[in-house]
Amino acid sequence: MTDAAAWSQAELMTKVARLSAEQGLRQADIGRRLNLSQASVSRLLSRAREAGILRVQVVPPHGVHADVEDELQRRFGLVDAVVVDAAPPGADLAADLGLRAADYLQATLGVEGSIGVSSWSATLLGAATSMGASSATKSTQTRSVVQLVGGHGDPQVQAQAVRLVTLLAQATRSEPVTLPAPGILGSAPARDALMADPALAPIISAWSQVTVALVGIGSLEPSALVRDSGNAWSPADGRELASAGAVGDICFRFFDSSGEPVASALDARVVGISLDDFRRIPRRVGVAGGPHKVAAIRGAVRGGWLTTLVTDLATAQALLDEGPG
Questions:
Q1: Per CATH, is 66-322 categorized as 3.40.50.1360?
Q2: pTM recorded for the entire structure
């Protein structure tokens, strides 16, 4: 190609690129204006991109932390990450994070087979409350919302676990499936007998149909909601878990700082989904944040417990400061 011909091609690519990017014209309109076929316009736009004439620049709006999300995905092997601004001073972090996570969940929960939820999460309760308030605008529809761990406890607090499932079911136009049992029993034989009861069989069977899990991430110290519900592990359990290196839990299944499961006597007393069944759920979304949760969240993402993490900016930066380990 001669210099003149090359210049002519470059000029034409520039004209086509400017009409597309700066004036927003469709390819057919550009073709009519420049007396070119639509196929020629398409080829010229492709060449303009290859030559660096036409460049796409993404400018995230305020409050969107795409670079941090990309780095979380890269370092920890996550499918997706959502990072929201820190809660304003004086705000309840769990409720604020839940409120902000609700928008993400509304946008990404499509027609699911079934949603599984952990029962004792203030953050998820905040998300469900927000979603329930705007359920009329949902396009989401699922078969059921299933508790993944026992939701019975102190009557004044048990209502919170039931409300979480009910609100999510209303927001997703699905059937609520509650697990009418405590999350932790006093002995392994009592737990085995309860899990073998025919009344629980439909609920246990429903766990295999769960396609997306929405879970909180607990630290080694029981949260106020868990403690008030009567489902907290005993001080002796806590000492055993700490000595084994546990840093956090999901659905009362504990793990260490590398995300490896921590075996303890508590495992045999949990009324809830097993670790193997939990990990078979295709999409596992964890919603958690705050300085006291950093070690637990880091263990969860290191160990592959989650496919998606929804957290706040300060927590995300703390996770990235140390890296995957």
A1: yes
A2: 0.81
